[in-house]
Amino acid sequence: MDDLDVRLLRAILEDGMPWGSRDPRLCANALARGLRVERTTVRDRLRRWQRKGFLQGYATMPTPALVGASLHGGALRFASLAQKPRAMEALAREARVVNVLDHVGPWVGIALLADAQEDEASIRRRLAAIPGVAEVPPTFEPPLPEVEAPPSALDWRLIDALMADPTGTLDAAARRLGVSRKTVTRRHQRLLRGHALWFAPILDFSAVEGALVHHVVLSLEEGAAPAKLVARLGKALPPWFYLQAFEGYVDAFVRVANAGEMARLHAAVEGLPGVSEAELLPVLAQRMNLDLVRAKVRDARP
Question: Residue 17 has what pLDDT?
Fold first, then answer.
């Protein structure tokens, strides 16, 4: 992972995951201008990511409210590494988990769908019932933007087509729908800008060569200002490609060259004013399971 990889990832993820990420299939020219490189450089780098197995595909899904659900984030600790693979398979099937951020070790980050009337205690009981799960910390419901562009009947078909083929091109989606590429591009952009559709690249960090990717999670003291801390972190962290503040904590992904740099990073972030706890977790992969969402999409389509 070189500097261009980091800069391109940062440009794609600059609006936050998963509801603000930029789909490079729509904005390769804008990405190239922002990075001050040729469009072919962006195209070739994306193809290289796919060839190396780093970019597994593109995940799209409707805003949960459009399918009668809410989104919750959290973390899980498994009882043992031997139980982890089977437990992770059960998360999607039995606990409605749509995204897993797999770390080295017993911990994973998760995003799951919940019914509108479901409370946190019910969600945690659902997760704790999965065999192999040893600890379920409190979950949180991130603030989500209001939908400004409700999908039309054709839009719902487009959403289903994009979800059905995460590695596909927009040309393939157009052929599937029997419309032009221009129509798909225009509608896709409208859905993203109107917060009806979310996008995120599916990344396998175990395929990264020449560096390690670490997930930095900073818990904040009461009264700490996340925005000020993010501004300081943006200058202090090693090359980062995702940095976002939430209520009570800050989330970041950074490229780390070696163990010495990791140790220096840990010491630096622990000493920041307003930080009560710092965790650095080596990242393995992001695993998406959108079958549940696709079923809800089919139910929601006119």
Answer: 54
Q: Is the pLDDT of residue 5 over 90?
A: yes
The total domain count for the chain is 2
Q: Which of 205, 211, 215 is nearest to 278 (CA)?
A: 215
- What three-state secondary structure class fits 2? coil
CA distance 12 to 102: 21
Kindly state whether residue 58 falls inside one of the protein's structural domains. Answer: no
Residue-number span of the structural domain to which 114 is assigned: 64-143
Q: How far apart are CA 300 and CA 281, in angstroms?
A: 38
**CA 2 to chain CA mean position, Å:** 21
pTM summary value: 0.86
What's the CA gap between 94 and 87, in Å, rounded? 10
Question: Is 216 part of a structural domain of the chain?
Answer: yes
User: Are 21 and 15 in contact, with CB atoms under 8 Å apart?
Assistant: yes
The lowest-confidence range among 37-41, 60-64, 189-193, 291-295 is 291-295
Say which residues have a Cβ less than 8 Å from residue 274's Cβ, sequence separation at least 6: 220, 221, 223, 224, 225, 228, 229
Q: Report the distance separating Cα 221 and Cα 262, nearest Å.
A: 23
Q: Is residue 117 part of a domain?
A: yes
Contact 108, 102 (CB under 8 A): yes
Question: Which CATH number goes with the domain that contains 105?
Answer: 3.30.70.920
Report how far apart, in Å, the C-alpha atoms of 10 and of each of 91, 139, 173, 213 are.
29, 26, 26, 13
Q: Which residue do the tokens 């704790």 mark?
A: 128
Question: What is the dihedral angle through the alpha carbons of 109, 50, 23, 208, rounded to the nearest 10 degrees?
Answer: 40
Tens of pLDDT, residue by residue over 206-264, are 999 888 899 988 888 888 877 788 888 877 777 888 888 877 888 889 999 888 888 88
Tell which of 97, 125, 143 closes a domain: 143
